[in-house]
Amino acid sequence: MFTVEKVSALEILDSRGRPTVKATCILRDGTVASASVPSGASTGTAEAIELRDGDPKRYQGLGCRKAVANINGEIDQALRGRTFRSQEELDLIIRDLDGTENKSRLGANAQLAVSLAFARACAHARQVPLYRHFADIMEQPLRTLPRPTINLFSGGKHAGELCPLQDLLIVPASATTMDQALADTFAVYQSAAKLIAKKYGMRALSADEGGLAPVFPNPEAMFADAVEAIQQAGLRPGEDVALAVDVASSHFHTKAGYQLGERLLDGPAMIGQLAQWAKRYPLVSLEDGLSEDDWDHWPKLRETLSGKVRVVGDDLLCTNPKRIRKAVELGAVDTLLLKVNQIGSLSEAKQACLLARSAGWQVTISARSGETEDNWLADLAVGWAGDQIKVGSITQSERLSKYNRLLEIEAETRLPMVAWPLSAGVPK
Residue 346's closest CA among 323, 377, 301, 392? Predict the structure, then answer.
């Protein structure tokens, strides 16, 4: 049991220079721990609501002073002096205090920051690593390290809409350790940087999550250049390194259909296009291939790609148990992209994870486009036995803090890396 002495907060800046929240939790025994929360750019409409100040004269309305004040005021008053037997007890108190379904009154950013700070304080008090504390919250043993899916090229909202596809990622498929996975990724990234300099006359400028962002003439060029970069790195496409794509199709979906460049596609035609890419390129994971509200066509997409490509739900699911249950019932996807700040507390994210697992899905633990140097996500991905982890590219300190933490955990635990779940051209 852990007694909260005080919680407090500070407005800090994320990796895009926008405000976010850092919370500190002090326990009765003197233990002190802090945690910072990320913020997304490509957000689903069903996500829990970050509380922003709305003052256009300060950070264009994006300030988080109201969320900070809620932690320093109402939340601190509700928690101070109370003893909690579990993470769920604390999260429930804050959720009930907020009183809204989408956490809009106190702010999901405020609530998650406190939830995470309490978890880290409990781990410190128990004198166990955070990843082990997360595993205990999930009531499971430590099993594996997640396999990284790492941004190579970016478009969509992460790169000024230079290409309709939001991110093309590489999957170090033959790597058996995190160390090898990152070394293989470095080789491909450097090859890609040289390739775009030669082909597009572009320096290695990067998008929100560190992916390279040349002006591709079409999505096919993005795929083809990724394959060429893998080959130039001396690696085998589809064997040593595979591809994953975040289509983020909600952002180019209209009432008329999917506006993919100059082409306007209906649902079946969009599925056909995605299937063509899966057949033509070493693609093993496809995220948000359809719009978040195109429920009618998601089951067909999963059926079309079943056994070949993981069908991942992000905007579709928003780490929301209600939407996950609907997707399970319809057979819409086979992988959950878990973003804790989409739902606003560790306990609700745990529920989402367990629902996905009970349906036989894979789980990818994901960062956001607006990240901080806090590395708790790496511990969460290990503690909750994530099949994959999606952090961003291998540049920028807010991304590297997570990868470096994974290297530390690998050295401490010697846990094996989880096998890739498909055999479509990729060794298990």
Answer: 377
